[in-house]
Structure formats: C-alpha cells, structure tokens
Design a protein that fits this description.
139 residues, mainly beta, Thrombin, subunit H, 5-stranded antiparallel beta sheet, 4-stranded antiparallel beta sheet, 5% helix
Length: 139
C-alpha cells in the first residue's frame, strides 16, 4: 500500500461508460500526485494507493465519485446578445472567467431568438468514468 505523503506517477486513460476515450497521458509525461493532498478524486486515490510500481488497474467511478450529478440550478438563462455570435448554437462551449481569474467551460444548452440557456455544470457531470491506470513510480 502506498503511504500518505508519497509522490505517485501514473499513466492513465479515461473512458466514458460507452467506451469513448476522453483523456490519456500515455506516451506523454506521467501524472504526478502526492497521496493525501486531495489532488485526485478520493475514490480514485483510494484504489491507486493499493497498487505498487508496475501495477495496472481498471477503476470505475460513478458520477457521484467523479464530477458529481447534473445540478439543475446550474442552468442560467441569459439574453442571446450576451453570447458571441460564433457560439450561438446548442452545444457550443464558451470559456468564462471567474472572479479569481480562472477560466471554466460553460456549454450553450439551448438557444432561441432572444434567450440562451447556459449550462454551468462540469462537462463530465452526471457521467460514470472508467480509468485505466499504470503506476510508473512511487517516491
């Protein structure tokens, strides 16, 4: 078992429930995290700390263990003019700056002549995920 405070390096690939690959670092730099520093989903870290260097594991996370459920209150109606013209279609993703200077994605859920409904949920909210991980180093 990997101890708290240890740095872990991983190769990973992430899939949606239907098998569609959504992210990977295979062939690139490994993902590095420190056990116990809340840098990963807790359920994912809990599975990884049971592994050793060279171990592979397929880890399934329910939406509630990953980006959470879709929150109905995260939908907001705005005037269509507030949306840049090139993003005035269903499914468009805008980058919105938060008060601290970070940028997060907002999806255009619905649009009509005068109003647009924006979805502020994380794009992976409500999605079950499968992680294929390989522990490459522990230090």
């Amino acid at each position: 078992m990997i101890q708290k405070g240890k740095k872990v390096s991983l190769e990973y690939t992430v899939y949606l429930e239907d098998g569609m690959q959504i992210d990977t670092n295979v062939g690139d730099d490994p993902l590095e995290f420190v056990v116990g520093k809340n840098q990963l989903f807790p359920a994912l870290e809990q599975e990884i700390v049971q592994l050793g260097v060279g171990d592979r594991k397929e880890i399934f996370l329910h939406a509630d263990q990953a980006y959470g459920p879709i929150v109905p209150d995260a939908f907001r109606e705005v005037e269509v003019e507030a949306i840049p013209a090139q993003f005035r279609y269903n499914g468009a993703v805008l980058g919105v700056q938060d008060p601290s200077g970070g940028v997060f994605p907002v999806r255009v859920h619905q649009i009509n002549e005068s109003k647009a409904v924006l979805d502020f949920n994380h794009p992976l909210a409500g999605k079950n995920l499968r992680f294929d991980v390989l522990v490459t180093r522990v230090s």
